[in-house]
Design a protein that fits this description.
WD40/YVTN_repeat-like_dom_sf; Gem-associated protein 5 TPR domain-containing protein; alpha+beta; 32 helices; N2O_reductase_N; single chain; WD repeat; four-stranded antiparallel beta sheet
């Protein structure tokens, strides 16, 4: 009598799964960084396309396998890898039942691949292998004729199912602030309690991975009857096109081979609308201008259509091309009544939205692309199979083109007019090039060569006139400077052909891309023009920020903003009489920042600075709110859910039923402590037991009335729900722990705030101070959850919600959102001053390079008491004597010769710090090495030295000019400086809790001591003792190392001695590892191996000065903050900022 799970038609043999990452060589650190990823949905073509083992599960899109793993700390599943090696559709995957690290995948080309999941590599290739009611999951006992249980999971049919014999082990993470920071997340999980025979008989077998016909995928807990994870919709095939909604930069539409158009909210990365489908292939889409809420789509066999997104239905169809495929559709944004289509029948047809044909432009072959001019409403360009680009003028009756541009060596696909330069357009071709054409000169003015396959996606930047981005069948995205044809950056993250590229004018440096790998990815282009934002925050003149296209197009000129958004910001600022700087920082910061919390962050900054609540935008209530608003906004939301009538339209993503709305409203009222409203709604839903269980929390009288109303109702089976009891009894801490242990941090936050405001009647023994501490604790935990998910900006929002500006700034710094942190810090003012000054220092380090030295100086001059900081900049400046004197003068510092004299004077007075400082700025900076290193060695020989007694001198010495430091005659001094910097860096890393780089810094120091003849007061054996003591006392061992054993007494004493030397970190909140945006996103370019760990790097990579050695950007940032010199021991300074 064992429990089994059955599902109609699930009987195919299951193979095993995973996908290898595209190996593309990179020789430099990418500037354009990936900031978002919409994972593909699960393919509906085959049955056995999902599998699970221990704390991992996987599912297949058409050509790639997505692997999720349980994050034990937060008890949630996260995307860990995307693997692709199959060239044809994957038909089945299966995990090896005997080895959780091994699984296999099979595909339509008769290929079977065996994978190692942990190492993300192929173990073996096996070639020439041969060949109910919808949405209900039933649990059967074979001795009974009826199911033990039925779960109605979705309205769409199952496609595949995999049952886990036992649920994934869950780990509860206490929110107690005393919990050790170093507890390893890889230690053994607590086994689940043993079930009695009767319980084991009656309970379902645990969890089921379910895949559905609409591309949905989820992990269902059959015992708790709830989803542990659900991704409701996703494209299951190639995405051919993507476009932002003209009046809303947060909505992105995608068109796919799977026959649907989907609209996504890019802040939450979830689908909010989907078209009815069954359209064959949808090749292209175009939003209606403005706020019309319609999308025009082009299909392979069903002509073109207009879809009303809000009503969820097709309202118009165009069939002028017959059965020929329509490859491109373009709705004119200058004249909203005109729509153009181009097709395989050789025609480009212009019609009105009611179907009246205005022009039919005949081409000698298939037409693949068309684009309306952004300057002339009557001009349109086309790309044709005959290799030519044509320009037509609609204001004449002629059906002949005004211009024909020849030069491509294969068919032309997309064409795009420049939004900023009149008469300039580009075209992408199957010859692998992008050509830039000047309509006024009848000429090709540039050829962009670099792609190794046909070019598809094309996108001009709407603010910087020379920036052009292209996507290709070679799987890459390239960003070009069209002034000289230079490729500024190449992105390798997609795992297949890149088809669509788009950005929104109001967020011009956020780009979306779509691909045959079925994903949409979001990118930030801001690093390419980073000096522009620094010009804004350093309060430079408008001439350094905004310009005309002629100035911006001068080869080599610094980037300037030339588009509508920047002009609009300037016009609005010119109207203001107060708060001009605050608004300037906010508006430009939002323009430059990617989605994911920037607007939310600025709303909270405004609240903290005392802005009137009536000025808050409508979207504020949907994000992370300040705690003083949380209860009010959530109460309002509950009331809306109670009274709002269900919409009548269909076709979109399923609108919730009235029952679901009432239930949502009730849950909100309950968490806010509004018990009577909760009871009444539960009664309306027929759930009397829940209403009665909490009614005494209102009054005994009210409870008796409910009992009388219940008397004529049948008693239902009791549901042991701890939540209502906790609310009624006021046991807030237990409830917060209950939610936190399940990873439901937002719920815990609501309860804690409800208690703080007195809505939950807590016992007399629990004071307001305790509730307040609890609230701070939950906010901190929620912030850490966002941070570990690669969303530093939202983590900062959580801290600002409880007025914690220090931790908010720390989150931005640790996420390397430096420019944003400076903008926010400047607006917050005094409460954030210390952190703002630190960020300005880091930013200045970023710009200590040609040609931005002046920017670095400007940033440092924004810091009070900046003499030492400016001295460091001048010491590191590599120019000629006259150039060095010029920068000394700009920084208000003495000349080279004067510095020499001041240094000698300081030496005679025994002032070591000033001696080192002035020697570094003198004609003989190497003299600083001798004085500084001798002093540090003397300090280290003393038994009671501390890090703070030696670090200031070492930090100064770190700014010695590289060209002097690497001279052969200073080999010994250089070696000693690198060793001392490495050792003190290791101690600073321990203080900052940079656990991942502490062993690397100790190893680096030891290796330098072994290989070089030096005389330093350090012993290699002592370094090993310190490292072992630190690892033993902080549980800092990798998952593959020996099991944890408690530290010895000697190790405890050594660790305590180490902590005495460290003292406290002066900047609060900076403890803990750096984690930049995008670090959690798997990429097909994750092929680099870290020279620290020997493991593959996930997320952004930083290449060291040899162009080959790589470490993660996170490790590079942490290393540079504690030790300025490269891990390769060359004496070159690290600049990963």
């Amino acid at each position: 009598d064992s429990c089994t799970t059955s599902l109609e038609s699930i009987s195919l043999p299951v193979f095993w799964c995973l996908c290898s990452l595209l190996c593309v060589s990179q020789i430099k650190m990418s500037q354009v960084k990936q900031v978002g990823l919409l994972a593909a949905g699960c393919q509906p073509w085959n049955k056995d396309v999902c599998a699970a083992s221990e704390d991992r599960f996987a599912y297949c899109a058409t050509l790639a396998i997505y692997v999720y793993q349980l994050d034990h700390r937060y008890n949630e599943f996260k995307l860990r890898a995307i693997m692709s090696e199959h060239k044809k559709t994957i038909t089945a995957i299966s995990w090896c039942p005997h080895n959780p690290e091994v699984f296999a995948s099979a595909s339509a080309d008769n290929l079977l691949i065996i994978w190692n999941v942990a190492e993300q590599k192929i173990v073996a290739r096996l070639d020439n292998t041969k060949d109910s009611q919808v949405g209900v999951l039933r649990i059967w006992n074979v001795s009974r004729s009826t199911p033990l249980d039925n779960f109605k999971l979705k309205k769409t049919g199952f496609h595949a199912l995999h049952v886990l014999n036992s649920p994934p082990a869950k780990k509860c993470n206490s929110i107690s602030p005393t919990k050790s920071h170093y507890t390893s997340s890889t230690s053994e999980a607590v086994p689940p309690p043993t079930l009695s025979q009767n319980q084991a008989f009656s309970l379902p077998p645990g969890h089921a991975v379910c895949c559905f016909m609409d591309g949905g995928v989820g992990l269902y807990d059959m015992g708790a009857k709830k989803w542990d994870f659900l991704r409701d919709l996703g494209h299951v095939e190639t995405i051919f096109d993507c476009k932002f909604k003209p009046d809303d930069p947060n909505l992105l539409a995608t068109a796919s081979f799977d026959g649907t158009i989907k609209v996504w909210d890019i802040n939450t990365l979830t689908a909010v609308y989907t078209s009815p489908g069954n359209e064959g292939v949808v090749y292209s889409l175009s939003w209606a201008p403005g706020d019309l809420n319609c999308i025009a789509g082009a299909t392979s066999r069903n002509g073109a259509f207009i879809w009303d997104v809000k009503k969820g239905k097709m309202i118009t169809r165009f069939n002028e091309h017959g059965n020929h495929g329509i490859f491109c559709i373009a709705w004119s944004h200058k004249d909203s009544k005109r729509i153009a289509t181009c097709s395989g029948d050789g025609f480009c047809i212009i019609r009105t939205i009611d179907g009246r044909v205005l022009h039919k432009y005949k081409h000698p072959a298939a037409v693949f692309g068309c684009d309306w001019s952004q300057n002339n409403k009557d001009m349109i360009a086309t790309g044709c199979e005959d290799k030519n680009v044509r320009v037509y003028y609609l204001a004449t009756s002629s059906d002949q083109p005004l211009k024909v541009f020849t030069g491509h060596l294969a068919k032309v696909f997309h064409v795009r007019w420049s939004p900023l330069r009149e008469g300039i357009l580009c075209s992408g071709s199957d010859d692998g090039t992008v050509r830039i054409w000047d309509y006024t000169q009848d000429a090709c003015i540039n050829v962009l060569s670099g792609h190794t396959a046909p070019v598809r996606g094309l996108m001009w930047n709407t603010e910087v006139p020379y920036l052009l981005t292209s996507g290709s069948w070679d799987y890459t995205i390239k960003v070009w400077d069209t002034r000289d044809g230079t490729c500024l950056d190449t992105c390798y993250d997609h795992g297949a052909d890149v088809y669509g590229l788009t950005c929104h004018p109001s967020r011009p440096f956020t780009m979306a891309s779509c691909s045959r790998d079925s994903t949409v990815r979001l990118w930030s282009l801001t690093p390419l023009i980073a000096p522009l934002l620094v010009n804004v925050l350093a309060d430079h003149s408008w001439d350094d920020i905004i310009g005309n296209t002629d100035r911006a197009m001068v080869p080599g000129a610094t980037p300037l903003l030339c588009g509508k958004v920047s002009r609009d910001i300037k016009q609005e600022l010119d109207k203001l009489s107060s708060e001009v700087r605050v608004k300037k920082l906010r508006w430009f910061s939002e323009c430059f920042s990617p989605p994911g919390g920037s607007h939310n962050l600025w709303d909270l900054v405004s609240v903290i600075n005392g802005q009137d609540d009536s000025l808050l935008p409508q979207s504020y209530g949907k994000g992370i709110m300040h705690m003083k608003h949380l209860v009010r906004f959530k109460t309002s939301e509950a009331q809306e859910l109670t009274i709002v009538k269900m919409s009548k339209f269909g076709g979109g993503i399923g609108a919730p039923s009235k029952e679901e709305r009432l239930r949502d409203a009730a849950e909100i009222h309950l968490r806010l402590g509004q018990i009577q409203r909760y009871c009444e709604l539960m009664v309306e839903l027929g759930e009397w037991d829940k209403a009665l269980s909490v009614a005494p929390g209102v009054s005994i009288k009210y409870w008796k009335k409910l009992m009388q109303r219940r008397a004529d109702q049948l008693m239902q089976e009791e549901n042991h729900d701890v939540i209502p009891y906790c609310i009624a009894t006021g046991d807030v801490r237990k409830l917060v722990n209950f939610f936190t242990a399940r990873g439901q941090l937002n719920e815990a936050l609501l309860v804690a705030q409800g208690a703080c405001e007195g809505n939950i009647h807590v016992p007399q023994t629990a004071c307001n101070l305790c509730c307040s501490r609890l609230l701070q604790c939950v906010c901190k935990e929620l912030a850490e959850w966002y941070f570990q998910d690669g969303r530093a900006v939202l983590a900062a929002c959580c801290h600002l919600a409880v007025d914690n500006t220090e931790l908010a700034m720390a989150s931005l710094i640790r996420g390397n959102e430096l420019e944003l942190a400076v903008c926010v810090g400047l607006v917050l003012g005094e409460s954030a001053n210390q952190a703002t000054h630190y960020v300005l220092e880091l930013l200045a380090r970023k710009y200590m390079t040609t040609p931005t030295w002046d920017l670095a100086a400007d940033l440092l001059q924004m810091i009070p008491d900046n003499e030492v900081l400016l001295a460091k900049l001048c010491a590191f400046y590599p120019g000629s004597s006259s150039e060095i004197d010029q920068i000394h003068e700009k920084c208000g510092l003495p000349s080279l010769e004067e510095c020499q004299a001041l240094a000698e004077s300081a030496v005679s007075e025994g002032d070591i710090f000033n001696a080192v400082k002035y020697y570094l700025m003198s004609p003989e900076p190497e003299a600083a090495l001798l004085v500084g290193i001798a002093h540090v060695k003397e300090q280290l020989s003393d038994s009671d030295w501390t890090v703070d007694s030696v670090h200031p001198i070492l930090d100064l010495l770190g700014y010695i000019r590289t060209d002097r430091l690497i001279l052969a005659k200073f080999t010994e001094a250089r070696s000693e400086l690198l060793i001392l910097s490495g050792y003190i860096g290791a101690l600073l890393a321990i203080r900052r809790q940079y656990s991942s780089i502490v062993p690397a810094l100790y190893e680096y120091t030891s290796q330098l001591m072994k290989r070089r003849e030096v005389s330093v007061p350090l012993q290699i054996e002592q370094l090993s003792v310190e490292l072992e003591a630190w690892m033993a006392c902080t549980h800092s061992r990798g998952p593959d190392e020996a099991p944890y054993t408690p530290p010895s007494e000697a190790q405890k004493a050594e660790h305590a001695h180490l902590l005495d030397r460290l003292q406290e970190e002066p900047l609060r909140g900076l403890e803990g590892p750096d984690y930049v945006t995008g670090s959690n996103l798997p990429s097909h370019s994750d092929v680099q191996v870290s020279c620290f760990t020997g493991l593959r790097i996930q997320g952004p990579v930083f290449f060291l000065e040899d162009g080959k050695s790589a470490i993660s950007l996170n490790d590079a940032l942490m290393w540079a903050k504690v030790n300025p010199f490269s891990p390769l021991g060359t004496g070159v300074r690290l600049n990963p900022f």
